[in-house]
């Protein structure tokens, strides 16, 4: 088994190196994501090897899509440079550069970046021609949230609710659920980045292997969050595996703390970080909201999985322990959710007149249903369990509540990819006060 895992790791390390053996963009003039005072006369790209240029190897467009570049060609005497003269002096504004080239190995490399003349350039994900999020982006974000819930919720349930020693069958179930969550979080993150890159580069999926994704990875909040979270959750997966291998709790605590910390990547790259009225408080509230929801939904799934495998006394104590934890989590979800809703919806009417508000209403309806279901467990089932009775249909009820929680994560994914309503323009009086 260990030899198989080692072989798989070796293949995973070797294949990307072989696949990426193509021309690499070294320097662009004007620079990638740069702001220049005066528009250039020529756009020049320098690669690390000889390339073949097409007429459309460099296409420069204005923010409205007008092409302002002439056909491109390699520099005479040095095929590492591809140049495209501009048709006219560029006025103040943002510009998108899309490029492609043919290397000696027969692969066509592509890329996109932006620059600004007298203004800050937009991120590559907002380059001209880039498409916005689609239902597939929503599905991938949902998969990320579900994976995060299974991982963090499973770890939280094991460490905060269950005793230190549990039956071997239950321990196997825990590691199965948390392991699926770890793999799902990493793989969904990779898929989300690739799909965002496909939207920005406007390339067929098969051509992305030879696309230059570095501007997206290092010049956007989303890309930086992807890189950090991929590394972070790889560490979490390693700690989880170590906990299983050594049969110790210490690595699980490390995985839990690191996993919670890197969940902030969603908040630092989402609406709470980029909207005009965002602040550190909105980022913190978003992280609390997401983390508490992941712990709650993932804990519900773990509790439903536990009911059949655990002895009656352990089932009872686990339900009562999670009921106490869920009360705190729901309080954090509601408090952070109310703050974020007020911040993102400047007018009450936005709830029914704006698309973002309508999706939020659906989420609130599902959350209300889940809270009502949880209240039934808390106020009706819990007293019976405390008296020593056991509810035979509790597992089915927990599965139903878990399903609603997963549906909440789906609507949350759609909400993350939706644009909040624009803030109202300040009136003349407010503007005058602001200038003083």
How would a textbook summarize the main sheet?
Answer: 6 strands, mixed
Compute the gyration radius: what is it? 26 Å
Please name the CATH topology of the largest domain.
Formate dehydrogenase/DMSO reductase fold
Structural class, please?
alpha+beta
Order of helices and strands: HEEEEEEEEEHHEHHHHHHHHHHH
Number of H- or I-type helical stretches = 14
In short:
By secondary structure, this protein is an alpha+beta fold.
Explained architecture:
This protein is of the alpha+beta class. The protein folds into two domains: 24-126, Immunoglobulin-like (Sandwich); 135-416, Formate dehydrogenase/DMSO reductase fold, CATH 1.20.1630. The chain is 60% helix and 13% strand. The protein contains 14 helices and ten strands. It has helices at 2-19, 135-160, 168-201, 214-218, 221-246, 250-262, 264-268, 271-274, 280-309, 312-344, 350-353, 355-386, 394-416, 428-435; strands spanning 25-29, 34-36, 42-47, 51-52, 58-62, 73-75, 78-85, 93-103, 108-117, 211-212. Strands 2, 4, 5, 8, 9 and 10 form a six-stranded mixed beta sheet that branches. A four-stranded antiparallel beta sheet has the order 1-3-7-6, with no helix packed on it. Strand 6 (73-75) and strand 7 form a beta hairpin. Helix 2 packs antiparallel against helix 3 (168-201), helix 2 (135-160) crosses helix 13 (394-416) and helix 3 (168-201) crosses helix 9 (280-309). 39% of the residues are buried.
């Amino acid at each position: 088994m260990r030899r198989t895992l080692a072989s798989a790791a070796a293949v995973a390390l070797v294949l990307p190196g072989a696949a990426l053996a193509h021309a690499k963009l070294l320097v662009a003039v004007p620079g990638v994501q740069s702001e220049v005072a005066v528009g250039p006369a020529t756009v020049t790209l320098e690669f690390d090897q000889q390339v073949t240029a097409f007429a459309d190897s460099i296409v420069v467009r204005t923010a409205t899509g007008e092409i302002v570049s002439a056909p491109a060609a390699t520099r005479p005497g040095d095929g590492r440079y591809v140049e495209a003269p501009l048709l006219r002096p560029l006025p103040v504004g943002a510009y998108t550069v899309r490029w492609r080239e043919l290397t000696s190995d027969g692969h066509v490399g592509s890329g996109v970046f932006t620059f600004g003349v007298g203004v800050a350039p937009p991120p590559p994900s907002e380059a001209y021609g880039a498409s916005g999020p689609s239902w597939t982006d929503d599905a991938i974000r949902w998969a990320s949230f579900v994976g995060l819930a299974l991982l963090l919720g499973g770890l939280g349930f094991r460490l905060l609710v269950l005793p230190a020693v549990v039956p071997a069958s239950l321990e196997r179930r825990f590691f199965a659920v948390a392991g699926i969550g770890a793999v799902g979080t990493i793989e969904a993150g990779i898929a989300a980045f690739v799909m965002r890159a496909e939207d920005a580069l406007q390339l067929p999926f098969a051509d992305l292997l030879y696309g230059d994704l570095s501007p997206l990875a290092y010049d956007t909040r989303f890309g930086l969050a992807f890189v950090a979270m991929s590394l972070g959750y790889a560490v979490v997966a390693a700690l989880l595996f170590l906990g299983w291998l050594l049969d110790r709790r210490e690595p699980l605590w490390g995985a839990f703390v690191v996993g919670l910390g890197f969940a902030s990547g969603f908040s630092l790259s989402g609406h709470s970080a980029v909207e005009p009225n965002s602040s550190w408080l909105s980022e913190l509230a978003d992280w609390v909201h997401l983390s508490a929801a992941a712990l709650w939904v993932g804990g519900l799934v773990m509790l439903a999985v536990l009911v059949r495998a655990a002895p009656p006394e352990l089932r009872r104590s686990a339900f009562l322990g999670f009921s106490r934890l869920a009360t705190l989590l729901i309080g954090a979800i509601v408090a952070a959710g109310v703050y974020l809703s007020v911040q993102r919806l400047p007018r009450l009417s936005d709830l029914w007149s704006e698309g973002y508000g309508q999706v939020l209403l659906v989420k609130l309806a599902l959350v209300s249903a889940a809270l009502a279901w949880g209240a039934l467990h808390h106020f009706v089932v819990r007293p019976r369990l405390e008296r020593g009775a056991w509810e035979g249909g509790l597992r089915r009820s927990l599965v139903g509540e878990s399903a609603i929680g997963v549906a909440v994560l789906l609507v949350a994914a759609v909400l993350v990819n939706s644009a909040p309503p624009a803030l109202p323009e300040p009136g003349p009086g407010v503007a005058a006060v602001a200038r003083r």
